[in-house]
Each structure stands twice: as structure tokens, then as C-alpha cells.
Design a protein that fits this description.
Elements (H helix, E strand, L loop, with lengths): L2 E6 L8 H10 L2 E7 L3 H13 L3 E5 L11 H11 L4 E10 L7 H18 L3 E6 L2 H11 L5 E3 L8 H6 L3 E4 L9 H9 L5 E3 L21 H12 L3 H15 L7
Parallel strand pairs: 1-2, 2-3, 3-4, 4-5, 5-6, 6-7, 7-8
Helix pairs in contact: 2-3, 4-5, 8-9
The chain binds zinc ion.
């Protein structure tokens, strides 16, 4: 039974993707979900998923890149969404911390992806930063019936609400940081049927390697940390995350 890294960016890492996948495999990580952030990186995610049996893709425009989405870009994402190795539309959402795209444009582009996910029947992988209310409002207005995965979960103060809505919560390496008490409490309390774990590599490297580049192999440390928080074994948590992943991503086939 292998670990799953539910969200990563092999193309942002400085190491060759083949080496990262091999290192992950050696560490017991057998499934890696590679996230696209625009048309080119969504195409790349699909290429990586075709090349490596461990890798699966998500496709979409990150809020940072929302201002770039045009008609041809929309057609690329729509076309890729039909590919059998594409698990979800994502990562998409709102980022009011960096504001790399105008906020009104971010909301339009997010809404377009929410509707696309509904139309093609895929889950939605959501990135949200300092935009909690707008993200949750837009999802409740437009996302009815969608499977929603909150990647790099960062809304511990909304835990009860997002659990009540049926969302999946994917915790990244920052849950291991000493000051992340609220996030740790959320990771302890979230119902077993809703938890996923990810690296978001090369970012958010878990303790004790914090500060160095992250990679899918390191998700193992996050499993150990969260398992201890929840008072279960890493093997139990891995089994739970695998069940959740196949429920959240209907196209996913685990080895
Ligand atoms: Zn990401």
C-alpha cells in the first residue's frame, strides 16, 4: 500500500521529474497528483501523467494566472479535461495575498472553472488565500453538487462549515510547522472520510527539512506527523487517504 501526494508541482522543482518520481517511488509514494496552473503547465501535467504511471494531472488556471485566460486557453483546458488521466479541474480559486491578477478577474476566471467542472463532471481543486469569504460564497452559489478539494488547507476557522458542505481537506507540509496550532487542530478534528495529504512541492517542506526544497517523497513525513496527531498509525492514515482519494477523484486508479 503506497502513499499518495494529492497535490504537487514537479515542474516548479529544480530536480528532473523522472528523478523526483523515482525518489518518491523509493520512499513508498505511488501516486502523485500534478497540478497545472495555466494552459502550458496543464498540458505538461497531462504529458507527465502519460509518461509516469504514478502521475495524474489536474488542469486549470491558477488565480495568479487568471489574467492570462483567453478563448484559446479556455479551449485547451476544456479539451484536456476530457483526458482519462486528468482527475480534476484545478488548481483554481482566489489569491488576494499576492494579487497577481485583478480580483474581479480572478473571480470571473474561478467562476468559469467552477462551471466547467460542473459541466464535465470533474471535481474542483481549490486554492484560496486571504479570500475566504469570496471563495466560500462563490462555491456555495455556483458549486452546488460539485466535489470540492481545498488544497493546502488554510481555513481552520471555517472547519465546521467546510466539513458540513462535504468538502475534502488536503493538508500540506505547513501543518508540521511549530506555530501551526490551528491547522494541527483542524487536521486532528477533520472526519477521517474527508482528509487528504499533499506536498505542494517544491513549497512548504515539512519539518524537519523545512527551508529546503520539497518533493513528493517527503509527503511521508506529513503522513507520520498527522497520524500521530490523530492517534493512528501511518498505515491506517494511508489507507484512509487512499479511500478518500478514489472517492474524491472518480478517474483515479490506484495500483
Ligand atoms: Zn499548488
Amino acid at each position: 500500500m503506497t502513499y499518495i501526494d494529492a497535490h504537487t508541482h514537479l515542474d516548479h522543482c529544480k530536480v528532473d521529474a523522472g528523478d523526483l518520481v523515482a525518489a518518491a517511488r523509493a520512499a513508498g509514494v505511488g501516486t502523485i497528483v500534478q497540478s497545472g496552473t495555466d494552459a502550458a503547465t496543464s498540458r505538461l501535467a497531462v504529458r507527465l501523467a502519460e509518461r509516469f504511471p504514478e502521475v495524474w494531472a489536474t488542469v486549470g488556471y491558477h488565480p495568479h494566472d487568471a489574467k492570462e485566460l483567453d478563448g484559446p486557453g479556455q479551449r485547451v483546458i476544456e479539451e484536456l479535461a476530457a483526458h482519462p488521466r486528468v482527475l480534476a479541474v484545478g488548481e483554481v480559486g482566489l489569491d488576494y495575498h499576492y494579487d497577481h491578477s485583478p480580483r474581479a478577474r480572478q473571480r470571473e476566471v474561478f467562476e468559469w472553472h467552477v462551471r466547467l467542472a460542473a459541466r464535465v463532471g470533474l471535481p474542483l481543486v481549490v486554492h484560496t488565500r486571504e479570500a475566504d469569504d469570496h471563495t466560500l460564497d462563490l462555491l456555495s452559489k455556483e458549486g452546488g453538487g460539485l466535489t470540492v478539494i481545498l488544497h493546502c488547507f488554510s481555513l481552520p476557522e471555517h472547519l465546521d462549515e467546510v466539513v458540513a458542505r462535504g468538502y475534502y481537506l488536503s493538508f500540506a507540509g505547513n501543518v508540521t510547522f511549530p506555530k501551526a496550532a490551528a491547522l494541527q487542530e483542524a487536521a486532528r478534528r477533520v472526519p477521517a472520510g474527508r482528509i487528504l495529504l499533499e506536498t505542494d512541492a517544491p513549497y512548504l517542506t515539512p519539518v524537519p527539512r523545512r527551508g529546503r526544497p520539497n518533493s513528493p517523497a517527503m509527503v511521508v513525513r506529513t503522513y507520520a506527523f498527522v497520524a500521530a496527531l490523530r492517534g493512528v498509525t501511518a498505515a491506517d492514515l494511508t489507507a484512509v487517504v487512499r479511500e478518500n482519494a478514489v472517492r474524491a477523484y472518480p478517474r483515479l486508479r490506484l495500483e
